[in-house]
Amino acid sequence: MSATIIDGKAFAANVRSRVADQVARLKEEQSITPGLAVVLVGEDPASQVYVRNKGKQTLEVGMNSYEHKLPADVPAVELYALIDKLNADPAVHGILCQFPVPEHLSEAEIVARIDPAKDVDGLHVQNIGLLAGGQKAMAPCTPLGCLMMLRDHLGDLTGKDAVVIGRSNLVGKPMAQLLLRDSATVTIAHSRTKDIAEVVRRADIVVAAVGRPQMVPGDWIKPGATVIDVGINRIDAPEKGEGKTRLVGDVDFDSCAAVAGAITPVPGGVGPMTIACLLANTLTACCRANGLTEPEGLTA
Ligand code: NAP
User: Is the CB of 231 under 6 A from ligand 1?
Assistant: First the structure.
């Protein structure tokens, strides 16, 4: 293996520690405590774990955490009334509704209801538009985390050839916008891309956000390229025992690590960065709401 392993766990810990320093400074100098409200509808076990982790990490960096749990059959009007209340609450700087929500609710309508200034997930059309327009936006957490790792590893991204595999609103498209904003030359590949191997072979930076286990083999990677693997896929792992599974990314780690200059592992790469960036976005939202200078190195 020749590639440097980009340690997302350590990087995320560093981001959280920088957020915690800024939160302490805000409290001391401005008597302001950033607050993040998380809304969970229903009792999906995975969502409950995510929400618990978010709450725990929010408190650990010194922010206020507000958790709102609603029953799975909550009428939309009740959920919207809660969002309106959180929008109006000056102690709440960030609002996140944990997805997926039960089928009778519309994710698009929920996101549209959240005040764009408090939309720390960066999913509101206003934030999508601001990002696309190269203006001050709230960037979605996972692509923001990828960007931070790329900047840290490569420095200036100007002129780099970047290929983003995947065009979802959550990851692929905002990732491409962020790379473009940093003056990379960006190609977005997707399920209809012709000769995707050739497209990826041109890239100095590959970001894979597909949701297909180990789809990208090492012979698609240009020697020395930086590979960011967003994918989280669970596959059978008979070598660990009957019925056991393990997590893998969208790139075939071993063959890609043999060619790449640097690569993020799964788990322990992009994954831990997502909550760290949620906290960074909440801090940014708090600074903007109070007319204060934004934290350096923690925004797009
Ligand atoms: P998504 O909404 O399902 O989008 C997948 C994208 O991949 C689509 O644009 C699709 O193209 C493209 N695609 C599918 N098959 C392809 C193929 N054979 N060749 C090229 N492109 C292909 O998924 P997502 O939400 O972006 O998530 C992607 C992965 O990242 C998933 O594994 C997810 O679990 C993971 N994820 C991780 C984090 C984290 O915190 N680390 C956060 C979010 C997501 P079309 O548009 O043409 O269909």
Answer: yes
